[in-house]
Amino acid sequence: MNIVRGSSARLPFPAGDGVCEGQVTYYRCTGDDSEIIAIVVDNRDQSPTQETIPIVRVHSGCLTGDVFGSLRCDCGAQLQAALNIIGKSAWGAVIYLPGHEGRGIGLSDKIKAYALQDEGYDTVDANIKLGYGADMRDFDTAAEVLKDLGMTEVSLLTNNPEKERRLASRGILVRQRIPIVVPANPYNRTYLETKSERMGHLGIKS
């Protein structure tokens, strides 16, 4: 899985009560032309005594959650929590994978899956009803981006043990898995419970 590094630029973003000065870098996968965005924070020169293992969030793109603030999932809340944590760290990155919409089934079929969930299917069975597996995502390109950034050992912000296993299989040593559990709401409680019970994700907050 080959990646090509594109342009980089300064990217200030809100982190907690302040502003973080990060750097955004564009990557492209030569195999399928998929795109990857890395937002990197590096304050090691200002915090030489802090832990040097980067804190990393590998985030699957979710237009409805990340952009529109949908309450049907926890994606947008997890992304903002990750940016807050990484923005205050000595070294870290968000690896953003736009092609992971709907756990890899794409935006169009994700909306179809939502319609099936409105009929009573859970998030796993909706994907299966559409002819997909429960999770179609591939984290190979994320691993290659992390290697390019010099982040071969990481503290990983995730509730998903499978993500840790997939990255490890591609040469990324996860020194620590840090939960990033956000409060449930009436619209996503069943979704979060399904991920916990059927996919092994960490539990939900009441």
Care to describe what's here?
With 206 residues, the chain is an alpha/beta fold. The chain has a single domain, classed as Rossmann fold (3-Layer(aba) Sandwich), CATH 3.40.50.10990. It contains eight helices and seven strands. The protein has helices spanning 63-67, 75-87, 101-104, 107-118, 123-129, 140-148, 161-169, 189-199; strands at residues 3-15, 18-29, 35-42, 55-60, 91-97, 153-157, 173-178. The protein has a seven-stranded mixed beta sheet with strand order 1-2-3-5-4-6-7. The radius of gyration is 17 Å and the shape is globular. The N and C termini lie far apart (40 Å).
How is the secondary structure organized here?
Layout: E1 3-15, E2 18-29, E3 35-42, E4 55-60, H1 63-67, H2 75-87, E5 91-97, H3 101-104, H4 107-118, H5 123-129, H6 140-148, E6 153-157, H7 161-169, E7 173-178, H8 189-199
Parallel strand pairs: 4-5, 4-6, 6-7
Antiparallel strand pairs: 1-2, 2-3, 3-5
Helix pairs in contact: 4-5
